[in-house]
Amino acid sequence: MAEDSTKSCMKCGTHSNLVPDPHIEDIFFCKECWEEREILERATEMGYDDEFRDEDG
């Protein structure tokens, strides 16, 4: 399967292993960044928003 060079991960910019965001049209993340995004989303839902995003406080 050929990769579409017009699509890229919104976080790291790679063009491979892309997963479409189900909530935002034409937004893609690579598999690795998508997994990280899901972890952060679950942490945010549990109230750990700032601790995961900014280690410097």
Task: Give the ordered list of helices and strands.
Answer: EEHH
**Major β-sheet strand ordering:** 1-2
Structural class by helix and strand composition: alpha+beta
Whole-number mean pLDDT: 82
Q: Name the assembly state.
A: single chain
Low-confidence stretches: none
Helix percent band? 25-40%
State the major sheet.
2 strands, antiparallel
Rg of Cα set: 13 Å
SS summary, helix count: 2
From the N-terminal CA to the C-terminal CA, the straight-line distance is 44 Å
**How many strand elements?**
2
Sheet-strand content, in percent, reads 5-15%
Walk me through the structure.
This protein has a two-stranded antiparallel ribbon with strand order 1-2. The protein is of the alpha+beta class and 57 residues long. The chain contains two helices and two strands. Strand 1 and strand 2 form a beta hairpin. The N and C termini lie far apart (44 Å). The radius of gyration is 13 Å and the shape is elongated. 35% of the residues lie in helices and 11% in strands.
